[in-house]
Predict the 3D structure of the following.
Amino acid sequence: MGEGFHPTTAQELEAVVKWAAAERTPLEVIGSGTKRTWGRQVQSAHTLRTDGISGIVDYQPAELVLTVKAGTSLEEVQKLLKDHNQELPFEPANLSAVLGTSETAGTIGGVLATNLSGPRRLKAGAARDHVLGLEAVSGRGEIFKAGGRVVKNVTGYDLSRGFCSSWGTLSVATSFSLKVLPRAAKECTCVLLGLNPTQATQAMTEAMGSSAEVSSAAYLPKGFCLLSQEFSMVLLRLEGIPASIDYRLEKLRGVLKKFTSQELIEGQASRKTWGDLRDLLPFAGSTKPLWKISVSPTAGQQVVAELEKRFAIKYMQDWGGGLVWVEMQGDEPHDVPLRRIIAENGGGHAMLLRASPELRASVELFQPLPDTLLHLTKRLKAQFDPHSVLNPGRMYASI
Amino acid sequence: MAAIAMPKPAQETLEKRMKIVADLKKIVPGEGVISDTIEMRPYETDAFTAYRQLPLVVVLPETVDQVSQVLKYCYDNDIKVVPRGAGTSLSGGALPLEDGVLLSMMKFNQILEVDLPNRAVVTQTGVTNLGITRAVEHEGFYYAPDPSSQIACSIGGNIAENSGGVHSLKYGLTTNNLLGLEVVLMTGEVIRLGGKHLDTQAYDLLAMITGSEGLLAVVTEVTVRILQKPETARAALIGFPAATQAGRCVADIIGAGIIPGGMELMDKLAVEAAEAFVHAGYPLDVDALMIVELDGPEAEVDDLLEQVSSIAKQNGSSYLRVSQSEEERNIFWAGRKAAFPAVGRISPDYLCMDGTIPRAALPEVLEGMQELSKKHGLRVANVFHAGDGNMHPLIFYDASQPGELAAAEEFGADILRLCVKVGGVLTGEHGVGIEKRDLMPEMFSEDDIKQQQRVKCAFDEKHLLNPGKMFPVLHRCAELGFMHVHQGQLPFPDIPRF
């Protein structure tokens, strides 16, 4: 019978990992378990759950720094920041609707372990860009810290950012210091209606290359269920103080004047639209395979075009075109051709976010690594977790 | 060489020097291998000039294949390698080793691709920081991180030190502005990370390599993100009768939700030195002088400048001038940017420190520094990236006076201890190098440092790449592998289960 460890302090967590390392017995490491259907399934008897290590350690709004225990729920973090008119600039998503799991967004540790960033990642940076410091327990059961509580710091290797996107396979975090920022006073979204994919890419490229400081840029093809079934839509978000938004909107409209059919979404409606996109609501309620593809912004549309030649797909583009969410409508195997198409269009990566248990078990869910990179990745894993007790096989079979 | 001990030279390598030079010439033909003592002189130090050491030999490869072959050769023969960019490191990151090959990347000087639609530039790593902006500014773009040495420093060196600059609060550090890297490992293996797309799905090796001070890999190519140049920028020059008022003003600006493009603070001594040097029109009757720069759309800049001015007045500012032209803005900055050479005019030598502190601790640290100044009998001028808490105290000393360098170093160490004590860190952007190496235990426990060295072991298990930098003690990778555990213990009954 497996154990379900639920430590409440870093020291308790350290004891559990030390024991597992000594016993050479793997642990499935989770926050509150909201992303368990995502990534590879861990084969382990025991589970280590970190959401008992929770709470705000230190928050001084004027320093723009929040120190928080890793098991704190994302909702709690977001509420605290909102009360002080600040936010996590990278807009982490709540993927519960699209993954069909519980309704919560999980822990801050889970957000960082998966480097989960929303539409504003385009301008504000990813989750990893906002991590300043880390306290964690390595797979050897050693408590350590890295980084600090200040924005500018090159004292030692950047293990704090290195934790991000490691999926709990190198170490288990117990607390983070994060850079936070003031919330924008106002936002609005300029909508361009009826553009084909080529025009949409052009419009997003011109908008992002202008001084209008667009913070998010997405493309929803025609028939997509968000906002309109009738027209395709390019969405361009502007955020800031009111005087600045009015000015930049004029500027943006000037740059995009050749696209005549324009609408404006303001305030709460704009916030809701981006929130829905961030949480991938248009893909909710289905169990069809959903891929997250990251390529260069201009390659997004080429990848979509190639995919459409071979498969029935439903898709949308975010991050100026470079982030493509693709839902496969049919059952045919597609991971190999999909990744070949990405490689042929300048490279990038594809991750299968949602899939049936059978599909999850049969394809590479994460982008396969070239040999030299895989070997280096394995060496890093072996250094931090020599007995493979932390989430073995969560990302790659051999990691 | 004085106080800081470097790894003991390998006698065997020193004895084989002629053969090594000959072998390297086979890999990098022509003038790419320098072994003449006089010709090697320019490489014996970087911008941390207190220390000098001639390398075993200098190699200037021109291709990735040559870099790979040189590293493989050194790996196979257990020869140390010190990578070097433009040599502007302020922490001795590129200080050569007597038994080490100095690998200069300055022939990697080509910008490979400008991709405006994807807002990316692909470049070799010997290109200067400013060189990247120069390549795209005619189209209205720029590369955001702007260390003071940007005219000279290489992007490769920026990656090694994770350089910032005055705009890093708003636009981030080097690590926040990189998309991809091509690196060569000590074994000669070439690895590509990232590209023009965002983020990675595997381990964020790009993050670990950025700021690794040339200890993990040699970076041969980088893809950086470029940004549209802000439409306008205006600066306010704000003077305060007391430094504590300036400190409060900084906190209030941030607290009001304003993120300035740049926010700099100079103390009285730095202001006097800068004014005497460049005649920027700085007021001399203030204790602290701030430059606050707002950038972006004109409407926004005007609005925020008004808010900043009123916050300054509330905090008792005694001087306020807002730039009315681009020319005037540049004059405001000229004094700040020349602060280091300006201090160089009034002191025979100076040490530049680089601690970062939480902004709120500024008054305490400034006060503490004055006490330390009395204790060590040396003067200190302060320039401070107030926006991100990064301080650059400049300690005045005279190297020709016996004992003054040692006193200055001790003073500097005390300042950094003070930074750590108030919740800050040893180095914001200059790197640990050799300068702060022995202070690492002030900030990190043995276990903390061990984890860092494990990264090193994954990349360079033989410790051949830039050894002697960053870590006070070199542990063999095998020693680090030892685990203190007792097998067979029962799972802890007192730990909660779910």
In short: Chain B touches chain A through 111 residues (CB under 8 Å). The two ends of chain B are 59 Å apart (CA to CA). The CA atoms of residues 309 and 328 of chain B lie 17 Å apart.
